[in-house]
Amino acid sequence: MKINSKYDNLILFLILFLLIFFAIYYINIIKALLNEESRAYLKELSHQAQQKVEEKIESKFELLTALAIRNNGVLKQKANNIEILQDELIVESGFDKILFIANDGTATVKEDNSVKKILLKDKKYFIEASQGRNYLSEKIDDSIVYAVPVYDGQKIIGVLCGFDEVKYLVDNFNCSLFNGMGYVFLLDHDGTVLWHFNPKYIDGNFLEFISINSLELIEPTDASSWQKDIFEYSINGNKRYCGRVPIKSKYGDTGINLMVSMPYDYVFERTNIITNITTQFFFTLIFISFLGLAYIGYVKYKNNKEIEQKAFYDEYIKSLYNRNGFLKESEVLLRENRNKLCLCLNLDIDDFKLINNLFGHDYGNMVLNDLAQELKNVFKTNAIISKSSVDEFTLLIFYEDVVAVVAKVKLFMNNMEEKYKSKFDLNLAVGLYFLEDNKEKIENIITKANIARKSIKYSKRSLYAVYDESLAESIKNEVWLAKELQKAIANDELELYYQPEFDLYTEKIISAESFVRWYHPLKGRIQTKVFVNLAEKLKMNIELDKWILAKVCSDLAKWREEGCLQKRVSIKFGRRSLYNKEFILFLKEKLKQYSIRPEMIGIEIREDIVGYDVESAQGILNDLRNLGIKIILDDFGIGYSSLSIIQKIPIDIMKIDKTFLNNIKEKNGVFLLETIINIAKNLGIKIVCEGIETAEQIEILQGLKCDYGQGFFYSKALSEETYKNMFLIG
After folding, report:
1. pLDDT at residue 698, rounded to an integer
2. What is d(CA 496, CA 724) in angstroms, rounded to the nearest whole number?
3. Could you tell me if 689 and 699 are in contact, meaning their C-beta atoms sit under 8 angstroms apart?
4. Ranges of each domain in the chain
C-alpha cells in the first residue's frame, strides 16, 4: 500500500489530466457537430430561398408564354400601335418592360413620347428564342431578360421579351434572420454585390469588402473559395457562415448567386461559456463536464428550435405552421397514412382588411387567434393546421366518417359566427378537397382546396364548397371576366340606366335610381348581378362604384346644360365604398368638379352594409347628410335588424322591398306594410315602395299613405338618352 500512497498524487493527476483531456475533446466534438448541424440548416434555408426564386422565374415564363399566345394575332399584324399593346402587357404582367422583337430583329420602343425602332438581332435572348427555345438571360445592367417565341400556328413570328430588375427575384424575402443578425444578398459570378437589404453594409465587390474588413480570413478570398455551397469568412474578427446557391433555370443560367449569411457566435456563444467554466472549475471537472454537455445539448436544441420556428412556423401565431412547415409536415403524414381518408381545408375571412381598418390591427389579430384556437378545439389531434397568409388557414385532416368531418366544419363556422355576431358579421369562405389518392402532391391538394374557397368568396355569408373539376374551369372564367371588366371600366365601356320614381298622388317624377349595364363585344349582355358580385369578390367594386358615381355626375351636368328638369339620382353604395375614406373624398371631388348640388345625389345603402359597423356608418352618413346628400335605406325589411338600424343612422328615404308588396294579399300582409309606413312617418322618413306592377297596388299604397313608388307599372330602367327624352324634357 505504500507504493500506492506514493503514487496517489500522480495517479490523481493523471486521472484529472485524462478527465480534462477527454472533457475538452468531447466538447470539441460537440462543437463540430453543432457546426455541421448549423451548416445543414443554413444550406436548407439557402435551398428554400433558391426554390422560391426559381419558382418565381418559372411563373414569369408561364405568364409571358400565355401573353404571347393570347396576343399573337395583334403582334402578327405589326400594328402601328404595338407600343400601346406593350404598355398594356406591362401593366397586366408586372414586368418592368416588355418588347416584341420581329423576326428581322427590330423592336418598337417609346422614348420621350416618341416611337422608334431598335435593332436587337445580335442579342443572345433574341437568337435563342427565335429558334423556338424559351431563354433566360444573364444579368444585363440591373435586369434579367425572359424571352419566349411567338407562334402563328407552327411558324415563329417573333420574340416576346420581359425585363425585370434583379432585385425582384428576392422581393418580399424576410431579411430578419437569426434574431436580426443574418442577411440575404445577391452576387454575380465574380463576387460583385447586385442587391442587398442594407446596401450601406456591403457595397461593391464582396471579396474586396471582406478583405478590407477582415483581420484574419478563414479562407482565401478568391473566386474558387467563395463559390462553395457553404464557406466561412471573418469581418473585423467576427466569424460568419455563408450559404451560396446559384440561381438557375432550365431556360438558362442567370450568373447570379443568392447568399444567406449567419453569425458564428449565434450558435457557439454559450458553448464557449461552457468551455471557460470547465477550465476554471478544474477540481469539479466531472460535474462540470456533465453539466456542460447537458447545457450544450440544450443550446443545440434551442438554436435548432429557433431556426425551425422561423423557417416552418407562423411569425405571429407561433403554434401554427407556415406554408413551408405545412408542406414539409404534410408530405411526411401523407406518406405515413397512405390508407387513411384525408381532407384538405382552406379558409379565409371575407374583408379581413376592412376589419383591421375599422377596429384596429390588435383586434384583427385577436380574431385570427380566436379562429386558430377554434380550429384546434374542433379538430383536435386529427389535423395539422397552418396559417398560410395574413388571414388564410390551411388544414390537413385525417378522418373516418365524411358526415362527421363535414359536421365539424359546420360546427367550427357556426361557433365563429356566433362569437362575433354582436360586433359584426364574420363571414368565412371555406374550401374542401377530399383526397382521392394520398400520393397526390401536396401543392396540388392545396390548390384544389383553394379553388373551392375562391368559388364562394364574398358570398356575404359563411359558406363552404367542395372541389370538383368544374370549379377550376369556373375560376378560370372568372379571372377572364374580371380582366374584361377591368378593361371595360378603364375604357368607359359600361352603360348607365335610370329607373324613375314617382309621387303616388301627383304621378310626377321625383327622382331616379341608377343601374349599371355591361354589353360585352363577344358575350353580349352580362347580367348585372354576375359582374357586380364578381367585382365585390375580386375587390374591384370600389373602382366600379367610382365609375358609376362619375357617370351620374357627368349626366346630371349634361342635363343641366341642356335645360332639362333637375331630378335627384340615387346610387347604390357597396360596403367597401361606404367605409373607404378615399372613396368618400372622391365623391366630394366629383360634386365639385361637375358643380353638382349635393341634394341632387341620393346614396342607397342596404341595412346589412350599415349593420356591419353601425358606429362608423353613423359618422360617415352624418357627414354626407350634412353636405345635403340624401340618405336612402334600400331593401328595408329583408334583414334581421331593420328597426334597430333606422333608430341609429340618419335616413331621409326608406325603400320598402317588393316582397312586402307581393305578399300584400296574404294574411297580415297589409298590416305589416302599414306598420312599416307608420313607423317611418313618425320618424319623418319618406317611403318608396319598390316593384309596383298594377294599378290595384297603387290604390292600396295610397290608402296606406305611402309617398312614392317605383316599378314596371311606371317604367323599367331606361338608357340615359331615353330617360332624358321621356321624363326630363318639359
Report:
1. 92
2. 12
3. no
4. 6-55+174-310, 71-168, 323-467, 499-516+538-728
Nearest to 675 by CA among 705, 635, 638: 705
C-alpha cell at 557: 351636368
Q: Which residues are within 8 A (CB) of 204 and not within 5 positions of it... i.e. 6 or more apart? A: 192, 193
> Which of 65-74, 157-166, 248-257, 580-589 is least confident?
248-257
Which CATH code is given to the segment(s) 499-516+538-728? 3.20.20.450
**Bridge partner residues of 524 (DSSP):** 520
- Looking at 218-259, list the stretches that DSSP marks H as alpha helix, in order from N- to C-terminal side: 223-226
3-state secondary structure of 78: coil
Task: Report the alpha-carbon distance of residue 289 to residue 284 in Å, rounded.
Answer: 9
Contact between 363 and 354 (Cβ < 8 Å): no
Give the H or E element holding residue 54.
helix 8-70
In angstroms, the CA 612 to CA 634 distance is 15
Q: Which CATH class is domain 323-467?
A: alpha beta
Check if the beta carbon of residue 457 is closer than 8 Å to that of residue 350.
yes
More confident residue, 421 or 124: 124
| Cα–Cα distance, 226 to 214 (Å, whole number) | 15
pTM of the predicted structure, to 2 decimals: 0.48
Query: Angle of helix 541-561 relative to helix 581-593, nearest 10 degrees?
Result: 20
For 587, residues 6+ apart whose C-beta sits below 8 A from its C-beta are: 549, 601, 624
Cα distance between residue 657 and residue 638, in whole Å: 7
Kindly state the DSSP code that residue 244 receives in the 8-state scheme.
E
Q: For domain 6-55+174-310, which architecture applies?
A: 2-Layer Sandwich (3.30)
The arrangement of strands across the sheet holding 230-235 comes to 193-196, 183-188, 252-263, 238-249, 230-235
Q: Is 564 within 8 Å of 729 (Cβ atoms)?
A: yes
Q: Measured in whole angstroms, how far is the alpha carbon of residue 534 from the centre of its chain? A: 16
CA 171 remoteness from chain centre = 15
Query: CB neighbours of 454 closer than 8 A, spacing ≥ 6?
Result: 429, 431, 475, 478
Q: Is 283 helix (H, G, I), strand (E, B) or coil?
A: helix
345: nearest Cα among 412, 409, 415? 409
Count how many residues are written for the chain.
730
139 vs 4, 51, 60, 166, CA distance in Å? 77, 19, 16, 7
Distance CA 591, CA 598 (A): 7
With a CB cutoff of 8 Å and minimum separation 6, the contacts of 629 are 598, 599, 601, 602, 603
C-beta separation of 214 from 198 below 8 A: no
Contact 93, 161 (CB under 8 A): no
- Residue 668 burial (C-beta neighbours within 10 Å; 0-12, 13-18, 19+): exposed
Backbone angles phi, psi at 44, to 5 degrees: -65, -45
- Whether residue 712 is predicted with pLDDT greater than 70 in this model: the reply is yes
For residue range 333-374, list pLDDT tens digits in order. 888 888 888 889 999 888 787 777 777 888 888 888 988 888
Q: Sign (positive/negative) of CA torsion 435, 441, 444, 446?
A: positive
Instruction: Report the C-alpha gap between 563 and 158 in whole angstroms.
Output: 56
Count Cβ atoms within 10 A of the Cβ of residue 437 and give its class: 0-12 exposed, 13-18 middle, 19 or more buried: exposed
The answer to whether the 6-55+174-310 and 71-168 domains have the same CATH topology is yes
Q: Residue 117: beta bridge partners?
A: 108
CATH number for the domain whose boundaries are 71-168: 3.30.450.20
Q: What is the DSSP string of 195-208?
A: EESSTTTS-SBHHH
Instruction: Provide the 3-class DSSP secondary structure of residue 511.
Output: strand
The DSSP output letter for 527 is P
pLDDT, tens digit (0-9, with 9 covering 90-100), for 618-664:
888 889 999 999 999 887 766 544 566 777 788 999 998 888 888 87
